[in-house]
Design goal:
Layout (H helix, E strand, L loop, with lengths): L1 H10 L11 E4 L2 H6 L7 E2 H4 L5 E6 L6 E5 L2 E6 L7 E4 L6 E2 L1 E6 L3 E5 L6 H11 L8 E16 L18 E5 L3 E9 L14 E9 L2 E12 L4 E5 L2
Antiparallel strand pairs: 1-8, 2-7, 3-4, 3-8, 4-5, 5-6, 9-15, 10-11, 10-12, 10-14, 10-15, 12-13, 13-14
């Protein structure tokens, strides 16, 4: 896919790249998704005050998903749970109620370890590259998947509220054929209920480019095929 080729070419810097970064949290999973505190917390103008932003999160009132890749803000929304639309730089939306955010200028890349669950593969690669896995860090992956489950929120979180009425059901996409994908996310230990859902150290979104049509959303699960490239901040 064109998107994946561009990303690989643009961000290939080798494992000797140096870079500093910070991860900031705006709102929390439990507070927004379970307690219902979904007011705007950070504007996209604030996000763009520094270049090379990367983030995952949700729109105010849980009206949709936010995925930010190298400063481009993708908002994904659904009105009825049966269709969804992803728009880049949509002027209709200007803030997030929930956002895990970083700014990274350059990345180091390596082959994503295989034969492990995704979370473990990322942890192993980070340790090898000297990244502190006790501190939250961003990453992205370019590759393909034969098995993924994606959703776009529709006013309520389906993880926090599994018995939603039909009109509040999220839009869901299940992949069972080889699909090029960019996975954007954060590895964060001891951040359950804040940066991650309970039972996970990951918060990940997917970006899929199908003949120029972008689809993005929260990844409930994804199995990455062998040969994928993992990008982590340079040391």
């Amino acid at each position: 896919m064109r998107l994946l080729f561009i990303l690989s070419a643009l961000f290939f810097t080798g494992c000797s790249t140096t870079n500093s970064y910070e991860v900031s949290q705006h709102g929390g999973m439990r507070d927004a998704l379970r307690m219902g505190n979904t007011q705007p917390r950070i504007s996209f103008a604030e996000v763009a005050s520094k270049p090379h932003a990367y983030a995952v999160g949700a729109l105010p009132n849980l009206d949709g998903e936010i995925t930010i890749f190298d400063g481009t803000v993708y908002t994904s929304t659904t009105q009825d749970g049966t269709t969804a639309i992803t728009v880049a730089a949509d002027e209709k939306y200007d803030a997030a109620t929930l956002l895990t955010l970083t700014h990274v200028e350059s990345w180091q890349d390596c082959m994503l370890p295989s034969n492990h669950p995704l979370e473990k593969s990322i942890e192993l690669a980070a340790i090898i590259q000297g990244i502190d896995t006790e501190t939250p860090f961003p990453f992205f992956i370019t590759g393909s998947t034969n098995d993924f489950h994606m959703h776009v929120i529709n006013g309520f979180c389906p993880v926090a509220n599994p018995n939603l009425a039909a009109k509040f059901q999220p839009w869901r996409l299940v992949g069972s054929q080889s699909t090029p994908i960019t996975v954007v996310g954060f590895y964060a230990k001891n951040q359950e209920g804040v940066m991650t859902h309970h039972g996970s150290n990951l918060h990940i979104h997917g970006i899929i480019d199908q003949d120029g049509t972008i689809t993005s959303g929260h990844l409930d699960s994804v199995e990455i095929n062998d040969g994928a490239i993992l990008f982590m901040p340079g040391k």
